[in-house]
Amino acid sequence: MFTKILVAFDRSSHARAALVQAIDIARTQQASLTVLTSYSTVLAWPGATMPGLTQTIYDELMESARAEGQAAIDEAVKQLPDGMTAATRLVDAPAAEAILEEAGVAGYDLIALGSRGRGDVRSVFLGSVSHRVLHSSHIPVLVVTASEEAQPSPA
């Protein structure tokens, strides 16, 4: 039985599908739910390798990243059914690192997250949050992919 569920949310169709599954599990198991969104403000320091990047522009980029993360959290919370609440975490860190850190310190017993389903070879080159979390987590991980019709078509 799960009592404390962490769901990673980044606005992708796969994250939306993971949120739906996490909500369902939380509801049927009377578990608490936490929605985590991470954003990364890792950029070269102004002037180091990016000529023209002033402190003001750098600060605006950082605030924009944080605002986008908060918008994702707000969107996820709006998806909760009436009467259900969730804790939220907005973390400035790479996604896999943020998920694993939160899971390691807060006593969760399930992590739910979406996967784009790139496969092993493409993930080696592009990276895979779901692979890293799945292979590094000490608690169960539910990896969810969206159905084909929920995915945006290639441009």
Structure description:
The protein has 155 residues and is of the alpha/beta class. The chain has a single domain, classed as Rossmann fold (3-Layer(aba) Sandwich). The chain is 43% helix and 18% strand. The protein has 5 helices and 5 strands; from the N terminus they run βαβαβαβααβ. Strands 3-2-1-4-5 form a 5-stranded parallel beta sheet, with helices on both faces. Mean pLDDT is 85; it is low at 120-126 and 150-155.
Helix content: 40-55%
CATH superfamily: HUPs
CATH fold description: Rossmann fold
Number of helices: 5
How would you write the strand order of the largest sheet?
3-2-1-4-5
Under CATH at level 1, the class stands as Alpha Beta
The pLDDT mean sits at 85
Summarize the main sheet: 5 strands, parallel
Order of helices and strands: EHEHEHEHHE
Structural class, by secondary structure, is alpha/beta
What value does the Rg take, in angstroms? Answer: 17 Å
Please tally the β strands and state the result: 5
- The assigned CATH architecture is 3-Layer(aba) Sandwich
Distance between the termini: 42 Å
Proportion of beta-strand residues: 15-25%
| CA-based shape | globular
Number of domains: 1
Poorly predicted runs:
120-126, 150-155
